[in-house]
């Protein structure tokens, strides 16, 4: 072959150069190649380029001589040993790396939780209670309201950014908490964070048990309490600390109005299959309207407590709120929650207001009426939703906003009736302890109203907020509450011309 011919020619040239002497041979056969000139000359002389067998034989003998001489050379042996050791270490390192990869793939499990997932705060809270041995900590300050109304602060320590080890269900786990300082989540406004759990085995049930345990711990923390959510950037987040659920009977509406609303909501919650079988969107909308201070928002808070639901409260006049973000927020509302839109009449700017002063309203009212209508019953509207809207001025609402399908039920919550006055008085002052009936208070209020109406020609109406504020002036003195009714009516009459329309304790005695 040409390769063999070239190699033999090269060897002949080297051999011929070695026979010349200029001070010393230009080239002599290295000891690690030759083992005598005669044997190598015989090899070259026996080479026949026309005989294929001689070509192969010459090549075999040639490399055999080279290898045999290299093996006897101590310098080459030492170098070859070093090369062998290096190659062995490299191969061992590569094999170890491959082995670790295979071990992780088949013998280890990893769970990663990002800060966007709803379980992320559960896990942090769980680590706070069950990871006491961590040496590198971060502090989370929480405020709690006591039954007396005072606030206390708690400092909870959670594992900080880094690697930690702990035991769960008799199995060791590695916890890696990572925070990317160089990048910030635009939607949520804080750095990206992840928590990664790693453990031996292939049973994923341990991660499921861990998440359920963390969820139960969080639920126990909020047990019997109402959580109010508000939108933060793009997601819902708890607003303040969970508060005590308000008793349903503490909000006094006229006649059976409270029970009628409760019955309708309860019937809706139990009709999921009925809606699904008939292809009707599973959502319900309510509009509570009436004068301010009559108990619209208070009733929704009490209703949520009765149903053991939370409240997602949203201000539609927020300049940072857009149609797209509103649609997203309603679709990702936490489960078992009531969406509350207060003062819906003030959510949208009229064309007259915008034309009157464009610079003042620039950048405000980014939620449009058409966007709101699409959110309520459009293609992007959410299901499994209970939505309450409140307004003091229902006449200002666009008829398209309150048509059936968007608002299913409308309820008027007005000023306090005689029946409400009686029930409110007897709730603050139980008849079996004070000996005064609620009807006596209602009659006294009506008499005072008639006096003001005949003297000043003003029709006085009292809201339940007015009644509650008045009772707080006489917490333990029902007799004084009945005798001082004239002061209550006088204050209300004066508040009709006051700037803020609020009651004052001036001129009253307990």
UniProtKB/TrEMBL annotation:
Membrane topology (UniProt): Single-pass membrane protein
A GO term for molecular function: ATP binding
Segments passing through the bilayer: none
Gene Ontology annotations of biological process type: mitochondrial respiratory chain complex III assembly
A Gene Ontology term for the protein's cellular component: mitochondrial inner membrane
Domain BCS1 N-terminal: 83-251
Subcellular localization: Mitochondrion inner membrane
Domain of life: Eukaryota
Catalytically driven reaction(s): ATP + H2O = ADP + phosphate + H(+)
Key words, A-Z: ATP-binding, Hydrolase, Membrane, Mitochondrion, Mitochondrion inner membrane, Nucleotide-binding, Transmembrane, Transmembrane helix
PROSITE patterns: AAA
Domain spans labelled AAA+ ATPase: 282-417
Pfam family, one: AAA
CDD domains: RecA-like_BCS1
InterPro entries cross-referenced by the UniProt entry: AAA+_ATPase (IPR003593), AAA_lid_BCS1 (IPR057495), ATPase_AAA_core (IPR003959), ATPase_AAA_CS (IPR003960), BCS1_N (IPR014851), Mitochondrial_chaperone_BCS1 (IPR050747), P-loop_NTPase (IPR027417)
Family assignment from sequence similarity: Belongs to the AAA ATPase family. BCS1 subfamily.
Protein name: Mitochondrial chaperone BCS1
Species: Aceria tosichella (wheat curl mite)
């Amino acid at each position: 072959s040409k390769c063999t011919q070239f190699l033999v020619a090269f060897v002949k040239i080297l051999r011929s150069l070695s026979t010349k002497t200029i001070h010393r041979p230009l080239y002599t056969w290295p000891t690690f190649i030759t083992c005598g000139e005669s044997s190598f000359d015989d090899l070259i002389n026996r080479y026949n380029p026309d005989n294929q067998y001689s070509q192969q034989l010459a090549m075999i003998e040639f490399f055999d001589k080279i290898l045999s001489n290299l093996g006897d050379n101590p310098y080459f042996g030492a170098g070859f040993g070093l090369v062998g050791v290096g190659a062995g270490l490299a191969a061992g390192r590569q094999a170890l790396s491959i082995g670790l990869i295979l071990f992780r793939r088949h013998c280890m499990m990893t769970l990663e939780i990002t800060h966007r997932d709803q379980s992320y705060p559960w896990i942090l809270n769980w680590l706070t209670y069950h990871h006491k041995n961590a040496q590198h900590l971060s502090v989370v300050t929480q405020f709690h309201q006591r039954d007396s109304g005072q606030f206390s602060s708690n400092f909870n320590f959670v594992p900080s950014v880094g690697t930690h080890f702990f035991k769960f269900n008799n199995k060791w786990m590695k916890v890696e908490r990572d925070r990317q300082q160089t990048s910030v989540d635009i939607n949520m406004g804080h750095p990206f964070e992840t928590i990664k759990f790693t453990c031996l085995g292939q049973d994923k049930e341990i991660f499921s048990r861990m998440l359920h345990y963390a969820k139960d711990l969080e639920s126990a923390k909020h047990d019997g309490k109402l959580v109010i959510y508000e939108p933060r950037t793009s997601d819902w987040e708890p607003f303040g600390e969970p508060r005590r659920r308000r008793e349903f009977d503490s909000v006094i509406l006229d006649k059976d109005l409270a029970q009628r609303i409760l019955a309708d909501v309860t019937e809706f919650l139990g009709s999921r299959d009925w809606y699904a079988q008939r292809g009707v969107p599973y959502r319900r909308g309510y509009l509570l309207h009436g004068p301010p201070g009559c108990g619209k928002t208070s009733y929704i808070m009490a209703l949520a407590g009765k149903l053991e639901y939370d409240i997602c409260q949203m201000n539609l006049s927020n300049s940072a709120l857009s149609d797209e973000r509103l649609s997203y927020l309603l679709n990702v509302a936490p489960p078992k929650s009531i969406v509350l839109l207060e003062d819906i009449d003030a959510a949208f700017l009229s064309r007259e207001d915008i034309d009157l002063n464009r610079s003042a309203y620039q950048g405000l009212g980014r939620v449009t009426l058409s966007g709101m209508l699409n959110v309520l019953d459009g293609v992007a509207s959410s299901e499994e939703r209970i939505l309450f809207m409140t307004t003091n001025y229902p006449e200002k609402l666009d008829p398209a906003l309150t048509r059936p399908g968007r608002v299913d039920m409308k309820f008027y919550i007005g000023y306090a009736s005689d029946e409400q006055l009686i029930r409110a008085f007897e709730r603050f002052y139980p008849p079996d302890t004070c000996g005064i009936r609620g009807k006596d208070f209602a009659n006294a209020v009506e008499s005072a109203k008639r006096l003001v109406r005949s003297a000043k020609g003003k029709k006085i109406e009292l809201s339940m907020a007015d009644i509650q504020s008045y009772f707080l002036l006489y917490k333990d003195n029902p007799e004084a509450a009945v005798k001082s009714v004239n002061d209550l009516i006088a204050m209300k009459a004066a508040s009709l011309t006051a700037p803020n329309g609020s009651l004052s304790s001036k001129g009253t005695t307990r």
